[in-house]
Amino acid sequence: MHRRALPLLAMIPAAAAAPPPAGAAPVTIFAAASLQDGLRAVARDWAAQGNPAPRLSFAASSALARQIEQGAPADLFLSADEPWMDVLAARGLIVEATRSSALGNALVLVAPADGAAPIVLQRGTDLAARLGPRGRLAMGDPAHVPAGRYAQAALEWMGQWEALAPRLARAENVRAALLLVERGEVPLGIVYATDALAAPGVRVVGSFPPESHPPITYPFALTRRAEGNAAARALLAFLTGAEAMPLWQRHGFTAPR
After folding, report:
1. Are 155 and 149 in contact (CB under 8 A)?
2. Topology of domain 8-104+217-250, per CATH?
3. pLDDT of 129-162, one tens digit each?
């Protein structure tokens, strides 16, 4: 698996952060659903500096990677995990030299805001009992959603996967899983800490230990179609640079561990 975490103050060489040429067309960003709030904030800051506001398209990393494979006009791909970036790298669809693991995140258990009591998540914790006889656990579908894969790994670490697999509410992305909890359609869900922070209708009732799942990293890269796009390169430098990091952190993201 390709993983490269760069120092916060040197994620992209300073020379790459030159301003985009005047009159440059808006850059199109394909970004993981869990990046919505943070990326919108960073994009607003970029536009406030006189740059064209980027076009933002959010979905599960798997769906976006497949769209890029099929020729969708993305200039930047911001994935919620390394494997989907690896897929595009293997097909020569990203500029490998621009790839960096820009952000980190954490995995949490959430309930409706007026829901369950806190839960200590450790090996042997019986989540099935906390769901009740008919309750389901919302999470991204681990077959194609990064958050779902991290969640499956955490449940396997706890020894709960076999008991809970038949009781999952498998969502098409992590924000869809969050919505099921907000609406009270399920008693519990597994999402990123950043998603929980953005949703007043839920509360965090437990945090998964970092050792329970692979490190959560967000690789960013320029797509091959945008290799000569100076505006896209400048925006990528901004997204992964020191100036934007406080905005990402305000929305719950961390440096990759």
Report:
1. no
2. D-Maltodextrin-Binding Protein; domain 2 (3.40.190)
3. 999 999 999 999 999 899 999 999 999 999 999 9
